[in-house]
């Protein structure tokens, strides 16, 4: 996939006067009328954005791209091919302001990545015997689950998802039988999407 591909490269996408493409790299959640999936936003302009995904939506579909829990951007698909698509916003947006707000938010608090509500299990391997967690929701950077056995906050572990392999992680919070796990590194997005495709929806 050519990371330099942008909306201007697509003849079917009508650019608005003054649009300027800004290269970004944001893992997001693409919502359509058939469900949700992972996407990677590659560039954005006041008039629209381009993203990669494993299951591109059809031209003309109304979609919502969420790249953070406080950034949800609706649009209409104007082109779709080869694992990528471009959407047009219903009205022009101030991209410079949005990116500036994102940078200032990063200085104060870690923004929450889009979460996917899925079922399934994860094995938490650390002290003693592995603990099985029943997943509540999950993102490329972490998950929350319910466990039948106690775990300790702050303990380094390995989190094992079938089909995605193991990743180093840490127990970040505990609330009753609910546990928050943060991955040391984001999950590979394509492998993660294949896992999402197989996991039961919550």
What does this protein look like?
By secondary structure, the chain is mostly beta strands. It is built from two helices and twelve strands; from the N terminus they run E-E-E-E-E-E-H-E-E-E-E-E-E-H. The protein has a six-stranded antiparallel beta barrel with strand order 1-2-3-6-5-4. A six-stranded antiparallel beta barrel has the order 7-8-9-12-11-10.
Keywords:
202 residues, mainly beta, Thrombin, subunit H, 6-stranded antiparallel β-barrel, disordered N terminus
Topology of this protein?
Layout: E1 22-32, E2 35-45, E3 48-52, E4 62-68, E5 71-81, E6 84-88, H1 95-108, E7 121-125, E8 131-139, E9 142-147, E10 156-161, E11 165-175, E12 178-183, H2 189-198
Antiparallel strand pairs: 1-2, 1-4, 2-3, 3-6, 4-5, 5-6, 7-8, 7-10, 8-9, 9-12, 10-11, 11-12
What is the H level of CATH, i.e. the homologous superfamily of the largest domain?
predicted glycosyltransferase like domains
Number of helices: 2
The global form is: elongated
Q: DSSP strand (E) fraction? A: over 45%
Task: Describe this structure in a few short sentences.
By secondary structure, the protein is mostly beta strands.
